[in-house]
Amino acid sequence: MKLSPVFATAFACLCIASGCTPAPHLFAPSEFAELHDQRSYDYRATSAQGIVLAVRTEPNKPRANVDFWVDAIDVRLRRQGYVAEKSLSVQSDSGAIGKQIRYTRVEPDRRTYCYWVTLFASNDKLYIVEAGGDQEAFKPAEGTVEKAVLSLRN
What we know:
This protein is of the alpha+beta class and about 150 residues long. The protein has one domain (about 20-150): Protein Transport Mog1p, Chain A (3-Layer(aba) Sandwich).
């Protein structure tokens, strides 16, 4: 089926006006499998060892910079028992400037889990990139995970 130029132009204008843009995406390592039909996420992938990479997009409301959102998320996660191990300024491969906090959490079964939250903010959107898994699997994969997190395309 071939679209008429008038229809194609009208459709493109409608998409732009309504904020219709491609969903953010990560380039997950080859040893990860993409998970489909993830209602709460724009993108999600997992390794056989249970390491998960995910991207969510939320409205930047109230409109704030990345520092505000990092602080808000940090307060919430610390209340839930997460311990911030490291905070970094980061830049995605596409040039977006953001912040990352790396957490650990000891579960009741005495296993330690790693959880990284990386945030990028635009005027109207907040991009939340999450990575996590059991520390035994996560630590050896940190370099691969970091590369995937910073591959965000939005």
